[in-house]
Amino acid sequence: MSAMQPARGTKDLIGDTFRRHHHVVETARHVASLYGLEEWATPIFEDTRVFARSLGETSDVVSKEMYSFEDRGGDSLTLRPEGTAGVCRALVSNGLTQGGLPRKVFYAGPMFRYERPQKGRFRQFHQIGAEILGAAEPLADAEVIAMGWQIIQQLGVDDGVVLEINTLGDQESRRSYRDALVEYLSGHEAALSEESQKRLRANPLRILDSKDEGDRKIVADAPTIHQHLTPAAAEFYGSVKTYLERFGVPYRENPRIVRGLDYYSHTAFEFITDRLGAQGTVLGGGRYEGLVGEMGGPPTPSVGWAAGVERLAELLEEVPDATQPVAIVPVSPAEEGAALDVLQMLRVSGVPAEIAYRGNLKKRMERANRVGSPAAIILGESEIADEVVVVRNLSDGSQQRVPLAGLLPALASAGVVDAMLEQMIEEMEIAAEEDGSGEE
Questions:
Q1: Which of 347, 376, 394, 405 has the most CB atoms lying inside 10 A of its own CB?
Q2: What is the domain class of 16-170+230-315 according to CATH?
Q3: CB atoms within 10 A of CB 149
Q4: Residue ranges per domain, the chain?
Q5: DSSP class per residue in 72-131
């Protein structure tokens, strides 16, 4: 029988791939905490209506890409294709719309879409996201954008990444712009792609985002929304740009960035790169006004973004290092009990450590070298009797006998343990000196 393979459009996260993925999520999680966000985790499947309402019944995601199924009770459920709708549903379901707004939320996890697998895109993929729920001020828009930029910078993938921003205006601005856009596009209707012809009456703004080359040429001369902004909408957009400049976030304006659904308004933005081929957006989002209302809550102005973990991970130039545990090596089975005591002492102290389950001294040392252990701690009969251990640096072969009580400082001075543990050891030594001086 042939070996089982992962389902099409999915992949295992193992080794370097997992470390890249984990590094992206943990970096984003840390930066989000600096901005005062709390992390939420919502179910990976929801009532289908959660996504049908939030994404639009006629959108490609809802009509073609959602993994929907009927459970044994006859309810229609859907694996989440994105994260924002679940966060908004959770805000309403948990009664959090009545007080304590705004809520600042970070999330991370798998999403599911049935689409043609391609480079950087999978049927099960992962996203990080941020939402500020219940904030109508332009400062919130600038903050979530600055947060995204800081994540990109701290990942070290900002080279060649550009922030593009646009405004979708308020409802009055959009109505005026929609009329002008339909009038312009109607004069070119015969030359539009079949898909854009269908969108012309139902959702003309989506034509601005068409990938068809013929559509792009027509759209290049289309009017922009900036000519139709109300004074209030223009002031909001100007404030967002002023705040971005204050935060030191570089940007360029792109009047073709749009969002197809009516509840989107004001700011729309994308961080793009040419390092991922055709799939150039690594993080994108915008402001939305009616999504919480679609979930049964009150009108709640919000803004947020989502980013693909796989795409950000692909941009990482260096793979984060794997954990390299110290190897505990008993010379013979007789020393195994004492070796286990040292093993547990190191782990409790925060030092990664492992012991081979079998093998003589030579085999255990071979394993230590094979897994990249920075050091081996060797215990023989004489070492146990003298309450010492032999610490062998596996990078240069040097070794020394170290009193068991001084093992942690010895590992720190040899560069085997990280800076955090070194600080902990230093604090322990200072505390011990203070305790001693107090007894005198």
A1: 376
A2: alpha beta
A3: 22
A4: 16-170+230-315, 326-427
A5: TTS-EEEE-S-SHHHHHHHHHHTT-SSSSPPEEEEEEEEEE--S--BTTB-SEEEEEEEE
pLDDT band with cut points at 50, 70 and 90 for residue 117: low
Q: For residue 232, what are the contacts with CB-CB under 8 A and spacing of at least 6?
A: 170
Neighbouring C-beta atoms of residue 98, cutoff 10 Å: 8
DSSP 3-state percent helix, strand, coil across the chain (nearest 5): 45, 20, 35
Q: Give the start-end residues of each E strand in 233-322.
A: 252-253, 264-272, 281-288, 302-308
- pTM of whole model > 0.90? no
Predicted confidence (pLDDT) per residue in 336-389, tens digit: 999 999 999 999 988 999 999 999 999 999 999 998 999 999 999 999 999 999
The DSSP bridge pattern shows strands 38-39 and 103-112 to be: parallel
pLDDT single digits (tens) 3-58 = 999 999 999 999 999 999 999 999 999 999 999 999 999 999 999 999 987 776 65
Which one of 3.40.50.800, 3.40.50.2300, 3.90.1150.10, 3.55.50.30 gives the CATH number of domain 326-427?
3.40.50.800
